[in-house]
Amino acid sequence: MKILICDKTEKEYIDQMRAAGLIVDIRDDITSEELPIVLPAYDGMVVRSRTNVRQPLIDVCPNLKVIVRGGVGLDTIDYEYARTKGIVVMNTPLASSASVAELAIGYMFMLARSLYRASSTMKAEKWDKKSFEGNEISGKTLGIIGYGNIGTETAKRALALGMKVIAYDPYVTSLNGVKMVTWDELLSQSDYISLHAPKTEETTNMIGAEQIARMKNGVRIINCGRGGIINEDALYEALISGKVAGAALDVYAEEPPTHWKLLKLDNVIGSPHIGAATKEAQARVGAEVAAKLIEFAKNMQPV
Ligand SMILES: NC(=O)c1ccc[n+]([C@@H]2O[C@H](COP(=O)([O-])OP(=O)(O)OC[C@H]3O[C@@H](n4cnc5c(N)ncnc54)[C@H](O)[C@@H]3O)[C@@H](O)[C@H]2O)c1
Questions:
Q1: What's the pLDDT at 177?
Q2: Which of 76, 87, 136, 231 is most exposed by smallest CB count within 10 Å?
């Protein structure tokens, strides 16, 4: 079976695939213009978040049998269409949960104590102690939107910090002692809101001006889920007015972001979509991608 690696994948796992008999070519800088020319010669492809696999590309690859996405979301792949063409689409759903949850929790501390601003003043050789009275995390209510793998991992850590955790997820009933609440309860009761839902038609702009108006004054919002779930213009206005005291963003409606003035606000901290960017998560992703492809190839062999 011939596999095209379209995004960065650690060598160790490529070696594992080759050792199992797969023919693996690496084109981790391939462009969207080159893909329709190169990919038709392959039975399978490995993508991360850089490469989109849309319907027109699928249409020119009649030999394609498997797409493996190293990561969680499948929003970069027209996976339902691919499946109608008999292509198996797989991802690595658990590999990065702990890393993303840790980032969300880290952001909560940063927002509670204005750590980014405090550190910036020190680098500017300013001893501005009186500007930095923060809040404790303990005893506060964390509202989690999307109680899947990452939401659950975030909740576990927040409970260990003495927070009260509530969650809103229309597709999950109750888990691990976390109270599932209505949408209105989540918005109105949370001191911190952490987003862990996928981007779908239903979740796009699910937090806009009207939802923010129903939140507590001084709420802090963390988005390590997907950009576009929060309306960035509405968030910007709420951060200016102080309705939202702070926001931490790892993901954006467009990546790289175009709404730079949001990122430049004093009460916003951001990172360039690094939720899963830890050595541990990357190793788990690579191992899972290799294992899934090797298993797939075994099942393809005639008996
Ligand atoms: N920042 C990063 O680098 C990074 C890394 C990995 C994953 N993610 C994103 O985090 C998100 C969650 O990942 P996961 O592994 O927990 O996925 P998951 O599928 O395990 O959980 C997602 C949960 O969202 C729920 N959901 C769906 N529609 C909803 C709605 N309208 N309202 C509330 N909840 C809804 C689902 O029922 C599910 O329980 C994904 O969108 C993923 O793309 C980001």
A1: 76
A2: 136
Q: Which of 69, 77, 100 for a ligand 1 pocket mutation test, highest count of atoms within 8 Å of Cβ?
A: 100
Tell whether the model's pLDDT for residue 206 goes beyond 80: yes
Is residue 21 predicted with pLDDT exceeding 70? yes
Give the nearest ligand 1 atom to 96 CA.
Answer: 6
Residue 45 makes CB contacts below 8 A (sequence gap 6+) with 3, 4, 5, 6, 39, 51, 53, 64, 66, 67, 68
Query: CA-based Rg of the chain, rounded to a whole angstrom?
Result: 21
pLDDT confidence tier of residue 44, bands split at 50, 70 and 90: very high
Catalytic residue among 69, 196, 220, 226: 226
Residue nearest to atom 31 of ligand 1 (CA): 203
